[in-house]
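Please fill in the sequence for the structure shown.

STRUCTURE ENCODING:
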């Protein structure tokens, strides 16, 4: 392999890793996402009123 092939391989590896991390992060952004390894997304749950250090907030 020459230097350009090594650089190209490294760039492809980095791009594939970035793409995979982006797709896996969708599940944590509130976006409904299903792939071959995950179940159907849960139905929207009811909003709960929670308190943290005396501050009230709604949790979805």
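FILLED IN BY: designer on duty
SEQUENCE:
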């Amino acid at each position: 392999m020459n230097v350009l092939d090594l650089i190209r391989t490294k760039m492809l590896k980095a791009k594939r890793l970035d793409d995979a991390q982006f797709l896996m992060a969708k599940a944590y952004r509130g976006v409904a996402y299903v792939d071959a390894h995950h179940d159907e997304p849960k139905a929207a749950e009811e909003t709960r009123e929670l308190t943290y250090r005396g501050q009230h907030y709604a949790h979805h």
